[in-house]
Structures are given as C-alpha cells and as structure tokens.
Amino acid sequence: MTSIFLEQIKTYNPNFEPRKEQLELMDSIDSLLQSTEHNSLIAEAATGTGKTLGALLPVLKSGAKRVFYCTPNVMLINSLVTKDIPRLKETLFPDLTAIGLIGKDRFVCLNKIDDQYPYQKSLKDDALNGDWNQIRDTYQGKIEISDELWNDIKYRGDQCRIESCPYADKCAYVKMRKAAQSSQLVVTTYAMLFALLDSDSELIGNIEETVFIFDEAHQLPELITSSLQKSFQLSRICKCFEADTFDEWKTNVLNIYPNYNEIITTLDSSIDKLIDSIYDFEQSLSIRLSEQSDDLYQSTSISLSLRLDKHPEPKAELAELYGDIHYLFEFFNELQEAFKEDNSNGSHSKLMDKVSYYIYLLEQAVGVHELSKKGDFKPVDWTALETREFASLVTYEAAPMRLEPFFDQFKTAKSIFMSGTLAALGKLDFFMKQLGLHNDEVWQPMKLILKSPFDLNKQGTLIVDDSIGNPSDDDYIAKFANTLPELLSDTQAGLILLNSYNQVNKLEEEMRWNDDFNGISFKFQGDDSRERLLDTHKADVEGGHKSVIVGLSSFGTGLDLPAELLDTVIIGALPFKAVNDPINSAKAEQVEKSGKNSFYHYTLPIASNTLTQYCGRLIRTSECRGKIIITDNRIVTKKYGSSLLSHLPDFSGKSKCVVANKASSGSRRRNRKPSQETMPTELPKEIAF
Known about the structure:
The protein is α/β, with parallel strands linked by helices. The protein is built from 27 helices and 18 strands. Strands 3-4-2-5-10-1-11 form a seven-stranded parallel sheet, sandwiched between helices. It has a six-stranded parallel sheet with strand order 12-17-16-13-15-14, sandwiched between helices. A five-stranded mixed sheet has the order 6-9-8-7-18, sandwiched between helices.
C-alpha cells in the first residue's frame, strides 16, 4: 500500500493496521482539497473502512482554517471529542482547537432554577461547583430530572437575557458557543448545523474557507427535508389564548399600563375572530375527510391527509386564516417593542416573557405558510387529521420538494459526503439528485465507491425464503409468526425489520399464541424508547440470553450491534416508502411529469439504498458472523427483485438468490400484465386524498 498518509497513520497509532480502502479515501480527500475544479467528494465507504480518521486526518493536514464535522446524532460527537480528537492533538496536531457543539435544549438555564425548591437548588449547586456540566444527558446526581421539570428549567434562546443574567459567566451553553466561534474543528449534529445556517451564520464563519464533512450522509435528504419541513397544530392557538394564564397576562398588562385598555380590547376582538375561524376550518376539514373514510369517528386511530395543491377550497380557507394569524403575530411584535421602551416596573420582565412566548407560538404557525409560498423549494403543503379514541387533531404542514436552495449555500466551500451506503442500484446519481448535487453549473463532485474491507462471503450468508408470501397478503403476518421459530432456531441475537407499526403490532399479537421460541426475549419497537430497547438487548445477550428486536426502518439504518450482539437479520418486508405519504406522492408526481416512471426512478432507488442499509447491520467488524433472511417473496417474484438483489453486498448465497429470482420472475411474468409489476401492493394505514 502506498499513500502519503501512511506515516501519519503510524504516528497516530503505531499498532494501527491501515486498510487500502481507508488510504484511498484519504488520497481522494487530499485531491479534493487541492483541486481547483472540484468542490465536493461523494464517497461510499463501507463499514470498517475507518471513515472518521480517513476524513479528519487529510483535512487537518491540509491546514484548513475551519472544519465542520457533521453527524446525525450526539453519540458520535461524544466519541470524537473524548477519544479521537485528543489523540489527534497528542500525536499529530498539537495546536488543534476543537469543540463539540450540541443543541441548547440539552442545557439547563441556571437562571430558571427556583432556589426555593431544595431539589432544584441542588442542581444549581452541582452546576456551580463543577460537579455537573449543565447537560441533562450527563447528570448523575440524586435528583430525578423529569421531562416536566426539564421543560421548566432548560435553556431557551428566545427567553435568554444574557446581558442581565447573573449566571452569564457560568452558563455552559454560552461558553460552548464562544469556544465554537474560535475553534478550528467543530463537531456537531446536522440539526445544529441547519439551525446555525438559518439564524446564526456568523458562528459558521467564512464558508469559502470552511471544509464540511457530512458523515452518514445517506440520511441527509430525509434529515434536511424534516429540518425544513414546518408543522403546526392549529388548536395550539386556541388552547393558548383561551387559557386562564392569558387572561391573567391581560390583567397584569392593564395593571401596569392602564392606558392600554383599547389595545387589549382590539387584541381580544382579533383573537376571538381567529379562534372562530380555526374551529370553522377544522369542522369543515373533518366533514370533507369523513366523506372519504367510514372509520373517521371510530375508536380505532386513523390518520388522513389532504394535499392542498389538489384541493383549492381548503387552500383558500387556510390562506385567509393565516392572514389573521400573521396580523396577530405582527401585533405582538409591536407590543414587545413598546414594552422594551419601559422596563422600570418590577413585573415588566414577566410580561416580556409571555409576549416572547406568544410571538414564538405564532411564528411557528406563520412559518408553515411562508414555506408553502417559497417557489424555489417547490414545496408541497397539506393538512393532516389524526383521530384517536373519538378525539381529533388537525395540523397544517409544508415540506420542500427541491433541496438545491439549501445546499447551494455550500458551493464555495469544500464538502465531503460520506457514508457506508450512498449508492442506489449501484450508482451515486440518485443521491446526488436528491440533494441537487447533479447541477453541473454549481457542483463539480468527485465520486468514490469503496467496497467492504471485510470478507462478506465468509462472514455472512444471504437467504431468501419465498414460502411465506407477499406482505400485502391478509395472512402474511400469521404465516410469518408461525415460521419464526424455525428461522430463529440457531439465533442468539436477532433483528426483525418490518414496514409499519401495523405489521409490528400484528406480529406481537400473533406471537402471544405461540410459545415455541426457545426462550427468546422479544423487544418490540414502540414498547419503549430506542435507547432502552437497545440497552436491554445488549444486557440480555451479554448475559447469555437470547434476544430479538422487532422494529421498523429506524432500526434498519444507523444501528451498530457488532459481533455477538447480532447474528441474524430477518427482513420481513421490502422497505418501500409509503406511496400515499404527501411528500412521497408529490415527489413521485414530479418524476412522472418529467416523463419517467416514478417507481423505477424514485421508489425503487430508495428501496435499494434502504435494503442495502438493512443488510449492512450484520457485518460491523471482522469478528461478525451471521445470516440475512428475506421473507418478502417479491424479491424473487417481481421483475425489480433482481435489481435489488444484484446490488446487495456480496454475502455467501447471493448469486443463488439472483439466479432464483431470474428463474421465478421470468416464469411468472408471462402470465401477468406488465403494469402489475411496477408498484408494491403493501400500503400503511395512513390515507391520503
């Protein structure tokens, strides 16, 4: 192996055995940083490549003035800040300044802690004397910090008065942000980066002198869409302004400012009109949707959505409604400015805090409508109605279909997009199109696909069991449950992946009547938090007990259970996105309008990438051994099955599965209309109109 980074790796860790894939990644990043032609690298580097060191070492060696290392979650931040970065400083970069930057909601606000409660005062004492770093996740004291308590004492930027706060010099959040402004390397989450780009670009600094490393980049399209997506429950406005606390606030305003009587009267009139409009809209929407579903007012929960680009009447009603909301938003902003001119009264700060909250609430509502009008994002907006035990909840939502306006912010920087799985159907093109990186006038990306450094053919086996049938069959889950004892006969630690909570719940119900599972303990998604389920699974396996997790796609991607913690992955349903989801349906329509088949150019590539992610859960280290079992028979009975199979990792048995697919789909396709092959038939319970 030859690479300019071999000596640096030996200095970093003399006992470290570099992999050729890692060196190739380093050399490619070095070429990017020296290039005047390319502004980005899109690199698929399989698990075990060593992406973190592979990216950081060449970037830091280049002398980059500013580096943002971005990851989907806080866990990697902690690992980098406590392990990797200290070692890099010790061995190679002694002058490196680095900081982990996390969200404000994780920090306590010392000024909000009420000293009259002993248990709260003990939290403050621990923070002030250095026994606690003011981050909720790290607290190990005697006090139980409930969600309710944390909501009262957590840091809120919109309510922070740092210039008058007696604890400003002790605030961990403020210190972290100050350190981040001067650090060469900032390790943060995607959510934090998005928030900074939206409201605090000064902390990021000069983008032209910055290198952005996007780790686990396969999650970027969905994470950015979710970050930009706006959602608001209209009833929150009604609850807020019909509450006794709002009446108390008005009374306090008039006690301090008697001359505001006419202003408060005008405010009451506007709010009454708005609340009536919201109730009228929700009632008309419920009637409209009830015509589409006989189950709307049944005791079982049901979710329905209404695409507003297809329904002009509710669209017009919402536009008028949001005109009133925007008026109220501006009203409170003007009131806040008036209050700022006079802070002589002791009760003034409490009035200001309430006004800040009302502005914050209305700003969230206004944000949905503003996004729906941003033509450069090609947004889709919809109303959603969820009924649960005879109660209903209406939300107004909007999401961008086009992400180019967001990512074009990085065009003058150097950006590295890397993940274990970026390709769809063997190519990086679909990932690039999702983010808008295919625009040659803006982006000049380098591309790199590195295979796994592990011997997958020896470490893992791929099995297709098509005897159970299609997940859309009424009896599929019952058959699946009956087959599970055999599928799990030699399993110590397993993972079962399905497509909907409906399937998970049905499986749990079916398994109650079957005790033939050889002492396996099952953990079902939804029964507890993801973290607790994983902790329980690890404890059981490490204690010599058998354990199997049953979950959805969130357990099929980004899950790291190496060696003995996972030996069997059962994929009970191919991971097709819900075609009736408002965002997916809108994107599929865009593809159709371009003259292409939405299934083969949108739905299938996403499924291919996700299925590869599922298979990637099995082999995480050179010690991992196990099998992957696919029980959805569409993998061998449908025309698209061979495409999915052929682009999976090279496990033992894969070639036989591909041959079986070609034989099976070839014989059945002659007796079927071509259109029947183009869409998966399993649909989740949500309904869209």
